[in-house]
């Protein structure tokens, strides 16, 4: 937004709570933040000099900002988390993982309850257990206890009277008590349900004993297949109940215990899920963009992004450090849970020891991850050295840029540029291009436009710093045609940049490189192949993500949607044939009918829509 006057716009910001979005010159959201007072918070970025290095770099890239007012701070917190997940801004600390764990649900609000797996906790009077880490084990445990205690699996609404003429197969194979037949006393059935609840509350020993006895009997009868089935069921039960007893003051408390380990480029947050005083499972999460972030800021970012998305909130959350706006988080989580949630930072006792144990686990995960990254860097260096030898370059290509052109069903062409430095992805340098000068799906012309725009920016004295770096090697996703276009563009700029085409086979899998008109096959076991494959997949992925954003804004949200008789197929057909809504609006009925899927009647409707008096522009 070239005419955006930041000093003037700062004066217009209200004093309300809300969320602000910082955007760069490419209209990308580079930072999302929340504020109790929008005016005071946003002004601080431009009027204060006491910022971390990361925030200073962010401020330099702000072209304009937007804000959204909310009624309360809690609403601002929720909106901030949702927008961070949506835009993945460059300067926000980002939670890389966003899992939704399975829960076990007992429908105790029904006369004859069922047991099932769900991923959403509701306030419906039912009992929920979890979250569990192993999806497979949850399915197994539901199968085991459901069959063992003969709980029904149907969705029928039962009131104790006969609902079916005959019971289903589960009754005949002794896996259901058939309450649908009205032959089961409600209290008898409820006692079986109570046994299941007791099992899920930690009393799994009785079920394991029963299964072991069945396994032994099956072995004695030489039915080894059945014995193996019981053995697998025992393992599933043990996975669910592989817990560690902990000595806490309240034995039935639900807690999440959070510990962190901070590395150079990422942080690891480890969470132990404690339910009814026992550790039900654990999981780690990686956060990126942590440069100059304090431990408190990293934990705050994690809580914001994790707990606004998870379906279950425990009664208590234990942290290793205090966080800002603790009361705000407690209010949000209390509202989500339905009763009081507290956030604590224990400094002594058993809870403090538990936090230290979780922190130790986080450090172990991070160290293993660091070793993995180190190994990847070593392999990447080997790959670029091998690539240098393969192409007979004077020096190893430190900066490699790869370009891909794609279109949305021929309507919207886009270009992507991904950057690898020293063999590793440099995502902060990725760029995307919306094709401006080409109408229709012309990959050659689109590639020419993208490369010219990229090199123009790179050679401009006032260009963006990352664009001022000229690549040591260009990789083009395509064959001789696209590669030839790229070579010509580079030559026209008077540059000496090696250009390679990334060639795919009939199965659209990376097959080799096209360099100076010669196709060079790559061995799939080589480090060069792995690097080229990774670059090609990343360029395609980046373009596809851009597609999705544009598709939401253009193809599926078009003015054509307002015209009766123009469905999705006709809309795409019209846009593909004429290029834009503006061009369509200028056409006559005879011209409109030339587009595929169109007929005289619909062409007349479209023409009238754009030429009625109340629609003239």
Can you describe what's shown?
The chain has 617 residues and is an alpha+beta fold. The protein has five domains: 6-92, GIY-YIG endonuclease (3-Layer(aba) Sandwich), CATH 3.40.1440; 103-240, no CATH class; 255-366, Ribonuclease H-like superfamily/Ribonuclease H (Nucleotidyltransferase, domain 5), CATH 3.30.420; 399-553, UvrC, RNAse H endonuclease domain (Nucleotidyltransferase, domain 5, 2-Layer Sandwich), CATH 3.30.420; 559-615, DNA polymerase, domain 1, CATH 1.10.150. It contains 19 helices and 20 strands. It has helices at residues 6-12, 38-47, 53-60, 73-87, 135-148, 169-172, 186-200, 205-220, 224-240, 295-307, 326-337, 349-391, 443-459, 480-492, 527-553, 568-578, 581-585, 589-592, 600-611, and strands at 18-23, 29-35, 64-69, 94-95, 103-106, 115-118, 127-129, 255-262, 266-275, 278-288, 316-318, 342-344, 399-408, 412-421, 424-425, 431-434, 473-477, 499-504, 510-515, 518-521. The strands form four sheets. Strands 13, 14, 15, 16, 17, 18, 19 and 20 form an eight-stranded mixed beta sheet that branches. Strands 4-10-9-8-11-12 form a six-stranded mixed beta sheet. A three-stranded antiparallel beta sheet has the order 2-1-3. The longest helix is centred in the middle third of the chain and has 43 residues, at 349-391. The chain starts with 5 loop residues before the first helix and ends in a 6-residue tail after the last helix. The model is unreliable at 243-251 and 552-556 (pLDDT under 50).
